[in-house]
Amino acid sequence: MTTRNKVSALVLCGALTAGLLAGCGSKNDSTNEGNGGGQVTLRMIESLTSPARTELLKASIEKFETANPNIKVDLISPPFDQADNKIRTMLGAKEDLDVIEARDLNVSEYVNNGFIDPLNTFADSWSDYASVSAIAKSLGSVGDKLYFVPNGLYERQLFYRADWFKELGLTPPKTWEELYETGKKLTDPSKNRFGFSFRGASGSNGTTDAITLAYNGDNVNLEDSMFTKDGKSIYSTPEGKQAMELYLKLYKDTSPPDSVNWGFQEQVQAFTSGVTGMLLQDPDVIQSLTEKMAEGTWATAPLQAGPGGKALLAAGGAGWAIPSDSKHKEEAWKLISFLSSPAENTEFSKKFGLIPIHTSATEDEFFKSGPYKTLLDMSNDSAHFVNFKPPFQYPGNGQWGQLVQDSGQSLLLGQTSLDDTLKKWADFWDKQKAELKK
Amino acid sequence: MNNKKVFILSGLLPALALILAFTYYPFLKGIIMAFQDYKLFDLRNVHFVGLDNFKAAFKDPKFFTALKNSGYWVFCSLILQFVFGLALALLLRKPFRGRGIFQGFAFYSWALSGFLIGMIWKWMFNSQIGVINDLLLRLHIIDERIGFLSNPKWAMMSVIIANVWYGIAFFAIMLLAALQSVPADLYEAADMDGATGIRKLWNVTLPYILPTIIATTLLRAIWIFNDPSLIYGLTNGGPAGSTHILSSLMLDKIIYAGDYGAASAIGVIMIALLLLYTIFFLTVTKAEKVGDF
């Protein structure tokens, strides 16, 4: 081989490698400073990505860009499953990001790692802030500081088979005890029909927490909801035990045996395919229920209360936050306040199936009827539906779901006793609390 | 060093750099993380903790369930995949009308992703709305629905069935290729010696394709051992942790606890086990034959 050939072979080799790397990398033209004329490009990343939602976001962003010609927004939409990891990695690597979507379950992690800034100074001078509901403010706060402005709220309610209820002359259950009784009447295994769409696999702590909170009722410390007002775990009280006894009965007498290993999909599928008559879920299932079930076959009712007549309710969701390393915080806030304005947020919530963050939105006819009505009824009846703060500030909160799934399943399968399980759960939270205080 | 060597080396350099950056750096980083307190919740406080992650793993009863399940999972899946794969390959060896189409159908499962297969089998195994229970009920083979994925007695077996279905195609493809390379004159000679079908299989076919068998089973065992996707899609390790294997337990530590230290410790244990397995396997099967195909 001649020297020339060798050199060209080497150049080709290097070029191929560089090309390969460039091709695999993502587009990253971080010319954030813009092109001189005061033009700013904001980089924004979403977490709860779905094609329909990304479309809605893009439409809103376009409106924003038209109103603010000197700001351009670059929206990054990673697939939902990897989104939070991607955001976390980008924040950790101090990549240019100006607006991120933080979630209730990871916001304290971001705060703890110093990734995001409080928004209070911005919010205080924001004219629309007054109509943001207390529940939305509480969702976006860690301690007494606001870290993200929610883009909509998820709240649990009961979905039930209106046609089956009519057939048997039943009314929607108001308490967990009634839920059980109603479930028993609906259950007929020979017809493959069951009362309750139970969920024993991932996400099962949604049910155990809800029923135990309702049973502990007034005694729950609403700011630190895994504990009672005198600092004991809600799973260690006699009321907590009563609640879990009912939970066990709910599985044994009103639910398909298979549901011990059901997650979100199976739970919803069982309801839409006519196996189960009652389902506890968030408003994001409304769309699929509307698609798969005939009109009039299903309806909604508020979340069930405990013996004290109170149901404890939390709103979940995600929203927009500003990374500490952002170089365009003013512009980022401009975008956030635009997306969170009553007009934009209400439209977004309507189209995607969420509860809007502004109290003024409840005037909208759309939310006064159908499946959303019960959600607003709950919000308006704070005497019976008490808002609590989920324990997202604890680092171990993610493990909690896993612990309840594992030990809850062995409880349901009769491998461990209720007392042992409750002790394990109470110990878990005592340990979390002790570690947090350190 | 002469010019030629310099040239070869610099030609290899980009590829070497890529391998170092994307294979060995993560590998080393993983080993280092196994000795660190590395939690997503507290990234500003990453520090070395000695053997704590390993101690925690060995104290966890779930780890031993997962270890036992891993053995069971690899052994049963591998044997059944191999036997059915070999049978399929033998059936497909002789040409017949529509063989190409039939091959396509028989091999397509290999083209699906593990998560997707998990989803498909999850719905088929569902006791209320699943097709398997429905068929068994209609054929009056069972009177009561079986909770394939919810009954700890059935769950491990169910995930293995799904895995066998998935992996048969791999063995069939590899073994078929090997079978087609067996020279026809060997069979002619065997015929002249009056060998029967079974005899030919045992004394001609199998010895000839033995190197392929060794290489594929070795590889496949490692893949089965390492791949959590099917278990994740099907049972998520449940009910009550009864279907966790080591790799799915490792994933669990990351997804639920954000604990990369604990996950890496399990990863390191897995590497050690695989190393032992490979040494053992290559020793008993006389390694020099393996590269021959």
UniProtKB/TrEMBL annotation, chain A:
Highest taxon of the lineage:
Bacteria
Tell me which positions the record assigns to the signal sequence: 1-22
Q: What is this protein called?
A: Extracellular solute-binding protein
Question: SUPFAM superfamilies, alphabetically?
Answer: Periplasmic binding protein-like II (SSF53850)
Matches recorded under InterPro entries: Bact_solute-bd_prot1, SBP
Q: Which UniProt keywords apply?
A: Signal
The record, for Pfam families, names: SBP_bac_1 (PF01547)
From TrEMBL, chain B:
Q: How does it sit in the membrane?
A: Multi-pass membrane protein
The residues that cross the membrane are 72-92, 104-124, 154-180, 201-225, 260-284
Keyword flag Transmembrane helix: yes
Identify the keywords attached in UniProt to this record, alphabetized.
Cell membrane, Membrane, Transmembrane, Transmembrane helix, Transport
Enumerate the InterPro entries for this protein: MetI-like (IPR000515), MetI-like_sf (IPR035906)
Where do the ABC transmembrane type-1 domain residues begin and end? 67-281
Tell me yes or no: is Cytoplasm among this UniProt entry's keywords: no
A Pfam family matched in the record: BPD_transp_1
**Localization terms from the record:** Cell membrane
Listed GO cellular component terms? plasma membrane
BP GO terms, sorted: transmembrane transport
The principal location of this protein is membrane
The UniProt family comment states: Belongs to the binding-protein-dependent transport system permease family.
Q: What is this protein called?
A: ABC transporter permease subunit
Q: What is the lineage of its organism?
A: Bacteria, Bacillati, Bacillota, Bacilli, Bacillales
